[in-house]
UniProtKB/TrEMBL annotation:
NCBIfam families on file: PRK00668.1
Group of enzyme by EC: transferase
Keywords: ATP-binding, Kinase, Nucleotide-binding, Transferase
Lineage, opening ranks: Eukaryota, Fungi, Dikarya, Basidiomycota, Agaricomycotina
InterPro entries: NDK-like_dom (IPR034907), NDK-like_dom_sf (IPR036850), Nucleoside_diP_kinase (IPR001564), Nucleoside_diP_kinase_AS (IPR023005)
Origin species: Kwoniella bestiolae CBS 10118
Tree of life domain: Eukaryota
Cofactor(s) recorded in Swiss-Prot or TrEMBL: Mg(2+)
EC number: 2.7.4.6
Binding annotation for ATP: 12, 60, 88, 94, 105, 115
Protein name, as recorded: Nucleoside diphosphate kinase
Gene Ontology biological process terms, A to Z: CTP biosynthetic process; GTP biosynthetic process; UTP biosynthetic process
Residue ranges of domain Nucleoside diphosphate kinase-like in the record: 4-141
């Protein structure tokens, strides 16, 4: 059974610099997800190292951190049925060459190193990422369009 949940989606520096923020937001809105939080951030090296701590033993980790420090990112929390799983499908495979056309990475990215966006890979990681990027919390409101998106 599907469940309502929250996911963390981040537009990485290349997506911000290329002017893709509006397009990515539009895709999630058109899909029917509720925007619960949004901000532009210039995170510190320490913040990024905490976010990507699961990759700290990988040889590409220093390059990833350097890239993520190269410009601002857009941090978002999206909410809805199966938001984590659906968000990952919408983003496409981490390697853009394996991403289907119609996905965000399939349409806008060419390399793993600059793949436009990040999305939570599990509900648990989503909760951790949301807490890390939005310690102030997220907005709580009823999306009026829900009656037109979800069956009663």
């Amino acid at each position: 059974m599907s469940t309502s949940e929250q996911t963390y989606i981040m537009v990485k520096p290349d997506g911000v610099q290329r002017g893709l923020v509006g397009e990515i937001i539009a895709r999630f809105e058109k899909r029917g997800f509720k925007l619960a939080a949004l901000k532009l951030a210039s995170p510190s090296k320490e913040h990024l190292e905490k976010h990507y701590s699961d990759l700290s033993d990988k040889p590409f980790f220093p390059k990833l951190i350097k890239y993520m420090l190269s410009g601002p990112v857009v941090c978002m929390v999206w909410e809805g049925l199966d938001a984590v799983k659906t968000g990952r499908v919408m983003l496409g495979a981490t390697n853009p060459l394996a991403s289907a056309p119609g996905t965000i990475r399939g349409d806008y990215a060419l390399q793993v190193g600059m793949n436009v966006c990040h999305g939570s890979d599990s509900v648990e990681n989503g909760q951790k990422e949301i807490a890390l990027w939005f310690p102030e919390g997220v907005a709580q409101y009823k999306l009026d369009a829900q009656t037109w998106i979800y069956e009663a």
